Amino acid sequence: MCSDSGSGIALCLSSVNVTNEGANQVITGTAVDKAGNSASASVTLNIDKTPPVITISGVSNGATYALGLAPTASYTVTDALSGVATSSDSLTGGDGLGLGAFTYSVTASDNAGNAITVSAAYSVIATTNGLNSLIQQILASGQIDNAGIANSLLSKVLNAADAAAIGNGQASDNIMQAFINQVEAQTGQHISADAAAILINAATYIINN
Fold this sequence. Notes:
This protein has helices spanning 128-141, 147-165, 169-186, 193-208, and strands spanning 9-12, 22-33, 38-47, 53-57, 64-66, 74-78, 84-93, 100-110, 115-125. The strands form three sheets. The chain has a four-stranded mixed β-sheet. Strands 1-2-3 form a three-stranded antiparallel β-sheet, with no helix packed on it. A two-stranded antiparallel ribbon has the order 4-6. 22% of the residues are buried. By secondary structure, it is an alpha+beta fold.
């Protein structure tokens, strides 16, 4: 908008519609009055039409992991123009005991109001290798408080894996059932109830699959 309280406006450049993305874009307007005087004014604009870039790490879309060996999902967010305003993540799915189909989602917005959500869907199953790792993790956390019991459970898992490797599925299943029986017997004594539920669930999955 141009104005002149003296001789009046002779020339006022029309408005400029700025559509290109970018930071520190300088827009200049010029006006001339009827006496030949001119003046210019500038404004600096930052235009951001692009949502932030979300990078999910740890898990990959469509991947399958073993319980006890599954990576931890994490994320980073960047925005080259207006900057990141908010970000949050969530993990949904699963059977409540670590197995099943999961979706890890990240939502972010920038200071220009652009928002985006990126997700990675993956599955977690139980395997003997994963169960070995899981037992060691539970022992380290103190939810199994007796190393001898942990070693006994580890031995059963290794024996079950060996039986399965030579095609003796029935023997493998029987050993895993003995594993379950031992966990049940030690629940509330040397194995916490939460850890026992996870171990039994994993062993049952191995038997059924």
